[in-house]
């Protein structure tokens, strides 16, 4: 194989493909990145049996062929190359990369031991890339990180006609976001659980195109790999991820149907106040919020420890109420709010509170963040 390629295009494609490389490969060959040159196109790919990544870019192919080299090493090298065209020659057990005055001799890996990438599942529909990236970031923040509860480490994606609903929970908070998309079939109905980290990385990295194509193979379907598979494609790049199995909580039962009190505040003002007051909060301690008709008092710190309080304007309807939250979880929800005003709905002081932004065109908020409070000492 012998190719000539523009440096920035090459470095960007290598960096994107390297995202699917396993941190601790079960077999050495999975640490490799395969490069295949054919016609005027170079294809880069990586695969760890759970996540695959593939990128295509135009090159000057002087001799077709393929090679398999250390993916992380190639990514590190490509990040630090000078701003000159890159020439890559691969023959036998070595690949030689030349860029300007720099030359790298790389050992190759046995290609016959490298697994074939999974085929892309059937197309399910398309969605705006920016809207999808925002929705994923808003919901993935509430996904669990405890691998002993794998079903909580994912983002549940529900498909009903032209509506996508993304949901995640770690048992202490719940995030729900709805958005419109263009389904391949109007009667499409499905619910899948996608690893949160893989989904977040994918959504962030595919925003250079206006739309993302989503492909889906449900568990048991042909090409699903048993557990099911979801694929994303945009701008010459595609990735697949094996779906998670397990029972996801019945989250709709957790969302309150009636409320006894509501507060409306400036999102930015509340974020700044929580950040300041929580500076004195010890690990795993709460920030206390006390609402009256026209203001909110935030307090943190107790006893002989450092203490802080701050009062900000708030519109509050209902009987005076005090509630306490984990400040990190509260800030996560506020930061995900795509609205300059946050509405907090309460049922009782000891019950979860529902944070939403401004209502959408249909009168309902498209993002909901349910947060479990700390128990207040009497």
Relevant terms:
378 residues, DNA Polymerase III, Chain A, domain 2, nine-stranded antiparallel sheet, 27 strands, 17% helix
Please state the overall shape, judged from the principal axes of the Cα atoms: elongated
Helix content: 10-25%
Determine the CATH superfamily of the largest domain: DNA Polymerase III, subunit A, domain 2
- Low-pLDDT runs of 5+ residues are none
Cα gyration radius (Å): 25 Å
Largest sheet: 9 strands, antiparallel
Whole-Å distance between the termini?
Answer: 74 Å
- Strand count: 27
* pLDDT averaged over residues: 92
Query: What's the architecture of the largest domain, going by CATH?
Result: Roll
Tell me the domain tally.
Answer: 3
- CATH level-1 class of the largest domain: Alpha Beta
Widest beta sheet: strand line-up? 6-2-3-4-18-17-16-10-14
How would you describe the oligomerization state of the chains in this entry?
single chain
Summing up helix and strand content along with how strands pair, one would put the structural category as alpha+beta
Q: Say what the CATH topology of the largest domain is.
A: DNA Polymerase III, Chain A, domain 2
Q: Approximately what portion of the residues adopt beta-strand conformation?
A: 35-45%
Count of helical regions = 6
Would you mind describing this structure in some detail?
There is one protein chain. The chain is α+β, with helices and mostly antiparallel strands. It folds into 3 domains: 2-113, DNA Polymerase III, subunit A, domain 2 (DNA Polymerase III, Chain A, domain 2); 123-251, DNA Polymerase III, subunit A, domain 2 (DNA Polymerase III, Chain A, domain 2, Roll), CATH 3.10.150; 255-371, Roll (DNA Polymerase III, Chain A, domain 2). It is built from 6 helices and 27 strands. The protein has a 9-stranded antiparallel sheet with strand order 6-2-3-4-18-17-16-10-14. It has a 9-stranded antiparallel sheet with strand order 15-11-12-13-27-26-25-19-23. A hairpin with a 3-residue loop joins strand 20 and strand 21. The termini are far apart. The model has no long low-confidence stretch (mean pLDDT 92).
């Amino acid at each position: 194989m012998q190719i000539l390629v523009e440096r920035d295009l090459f470095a960007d494609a290598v960096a994107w493909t390297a995202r699917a490389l396993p941190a601790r490969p079960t077999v050495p060959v999975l640490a490799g990145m395969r490069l295949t040159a054919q016609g005027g196109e170079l294809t880069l790919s990586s695969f760890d049996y759970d996540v695959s990544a593939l990128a295509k870019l135009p090159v000057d192919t002087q001799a077709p062929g393929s090679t398999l080299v250390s993916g992380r090493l190639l990514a590190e090298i490509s990040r630090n190359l000078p701003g000159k065209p890159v020439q890559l020659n691969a023959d036998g057990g070595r690949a030689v990369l030349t860029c300007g005055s720099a030359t790298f001799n790389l050992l190759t890996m046995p290609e016959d031991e490298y697994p074939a990438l999974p085929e892309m599942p059937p197309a399910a529909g398309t969605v705006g890339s920016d809207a999808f990236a925002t929705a994923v970031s808003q919901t993935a923040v509430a996904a669990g990180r405890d691998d002993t509860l794998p079903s909580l480490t994912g983002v549940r994606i529900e498909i009903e006609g032209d509506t996508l609903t993304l949901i995640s929970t770690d048992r202490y908070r719940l995030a729900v976001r709805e958005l419109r998309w263009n389904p391949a079939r109007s009667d499409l109905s499905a619910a899948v659980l996608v690893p949160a980290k893989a989904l977040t990385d994918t959504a962030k990295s595919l925003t250079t195109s206006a739309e993302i194509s989503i492909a889906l193979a449900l568990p048991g379907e042909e090409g699903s790999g048993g557990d099911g598979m979801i694929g994303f494609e945009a701008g010459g790049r595609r990735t697949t991820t094996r779906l998670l199995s397990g029972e996801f909580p019945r989250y709709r039962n957790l969302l309150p149907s009636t409320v006894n009190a509501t507060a409306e505040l400036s999102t930015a003002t509340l974020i700044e106040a929580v950040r300041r007051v929580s500076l004195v909060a010890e690990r795993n301690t709460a920030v206390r919020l006390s609402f009256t008709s026209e203001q909110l008092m935030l307090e943190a710190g107790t006893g002989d420890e450092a203490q802080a309080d701050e009062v900000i304007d708030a519109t509050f309807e209902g009987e005076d109420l005090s509630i306490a939250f984990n400040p990190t979880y509260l800030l996560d929800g506020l930061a995900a709010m795509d609205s300059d005003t946050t509405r907090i709905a309460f049922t009782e002081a000891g019950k979860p509170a529902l944070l939403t932004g401004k209502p959408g065109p249909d009168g309902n908020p498209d993002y909901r963040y349910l947060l479990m409070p700390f128990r207040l000492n009497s």
